[in-house]
Amino acid sequence: MPFHTQAYSCGAAAPAAASRSGMEKRGPAAAFLLTLTAIGAIAIAGCGGSDSSGGGDSGLPLSKATQSQVSRGRAIVASFGCVDCHSQGRNDPGAPGWLSGYNTASGPHGPGVFQIGPFATYAANITPSATGLGGFTDRQVYNALKHGLDPGATADASISGDTPGQGGFPAAPHYLAPPMPWASIRHLSDDDLWSVVAYLKHGVKPVANTPPDSQGPPDFWASSDTADKIGPGVLPSYPAAGEQFTP
After folding, report:
1. How far apart (Å, rounded) are the C-alpha atoms in residues 39 and 168?
2. pLDDT digits (tens, 9 = 90+) for 113-161
3. Enclosing domain of residue 173
4. Residue 234: inside a domain
5. Considering its fold, how many domains does the chain have in total?
6. How far from the centroid of its chain's Cα atoms is residue 182's Cα?
7. 38 and 184 in contact (C-beta within 8 Å)?
8. N or C terminus of the chain: which is more exposed, having fewer CB within 10 Å?
9. How deeply is 118 buried, as exposed, middle or buried, from its count of CB atoms within 10 A (0-12, 13-18, 19+)?
10. Per residue in 45-57, pLDDT tens?
11. pTM to 2 decimals?
12. Is 237 inside a domain boundary?
């Protein structure tokens, strides 16, 4: 279940669609890219799980974004398959429409549109445009990457866990649509996550483009994004049951 999707049997009544925004990933390559994302996240974050220190000694979130954060974020975005959905597959920061999401001119089956069960989802504009991430705070974008929370439906708040209603986590969370592999991205270190935020919010030119709102079930994917389906928020210490070191 690479997209963490809910199953819909043929002929079964589908849940009512709910309009929502989100950062999505590409259908055909998503299983492979999701695996690469997980491997990359573990390699960068370290075998013991993700770092929760947050931002290092300078730059986000303690002060303004730095050039080094932006450069690091650029490398991560260019390496982790973000462009497959948000730039229609073209990994070129010099190309028009860099990270501006699904473009209606590409048609109903173009890059950045996905069919998840009965729902159509669209890759979001993740440039700092008013039609993209421009209306969200740095923390809201971080919470999208770390906790999978739709920034358009989640307040600017510091969150200390993944249990609804506890530690600042919304009691009724609105999650990003399943193609977005946040369940793997969250295992990056906080320094790396804040670097991605720095790049998207402070290192990219705004592009005016408004993808359609994504559809989704009434629970905003909450029943699909449980720990038993997508894994724990913090990786177990190495070696876990499925691991062993062989020199």
Report:
1. 29
2. 999 999 999 999 999 999 999 999 999 999 999 999 999 999 999 999 9
3. 30-226
4. no
5. 1
6. 4
7. yes
8. C
9. middle
10. 443 344 444 444 5
11. 0.80
12. no
